[in-house]
Amino acid sequence: MAEGLLTGETALVTGGASGIGRGIARALAREGASVVLADIAAEPGAAVERELGAEGLRASFIASDLTRAGEPARLFEAAREKLGRISILVHAASPRRLESQTVFNVSDEEWDQMLTVNLKGAFQLGRAAGAHMRAEGIKGKILIVTSLHAETPRNLPHYSAAKAGMTMVMKELARALGPHGIRVN
């Protein structure tokens, strides 16, 4: 991968302490972006911040629980305070899911948590990022990480419903923000 493709870009990555989010945060930083990674897992998130810093990359961590009321807006503003502006948003946060969480076993609490972090988080963060980018004249990028579960049920009803909803949120954001030069995928 060529270095420097994203020099001058600033990114907020949710779910940045592990998995896909961590990989995306690392790739963005290696390409020159300044990155704020956010996650509910404070110690692993801080460890990723230290790892990237030790490599000479610009990254910082914010602990964030997207199930708390108002948290997406608070997180976005905290990231803006750190970076000054946000030109890239990647929403990769998602609660863990277990194969045992079938139609018959998923609790109402698990259902609410999954939809709040994935679906509501995608909408609220995307809306905040879009408003910021429009106001600042930033031709930004918003990436919403979904799954094959959005198209095909796989015995995880709360996860599949959240990911399918995220796909439609992405399309609605793209429709609203595309005319302003903001790409949503």
Number of helices: 5
Strands, total number? 6
Helicity, as a percent range: 40-55%
Read across the widest sheet, the strand sequence of neighbours is 3-2-1-4-5-6
Principal-axes geometry comes out as globular
The fraction of residues assigned to DSSP E strands is 5-15%
Q: Provide the structure class.
A: alpha/beta
Radius of gyration: 16 Å
Give the terminus-to-terminus CA distance. Answer: 21 Å
* Topology as a string of helices (H) and strands (E): EHEHEHEHEHE
Any overview of this molecule?
- The chain is α/β, with parallel strands linked by helices and 185 residues long.
- It has 5 helices and 6 strands.
- The chain has helices at residues 19-30, 42-54, 71-83, 108-136, 157-177; strands at residues 10-14, 34-39, 59-63, 88-91, 141-144, 183-184.
- Strands 3-2-1-4-5-6 form a 6-stranded parallel β-sheet, with helices on both faces.
- Helix 4 (108-136) links the parallel strand 4 and strand 5.
- Helix 4 (108-136) packs parallel to helix 5 (157-177).
- It is globular.
- The model has no long low-confidence stretch (mean pLDDT 94).
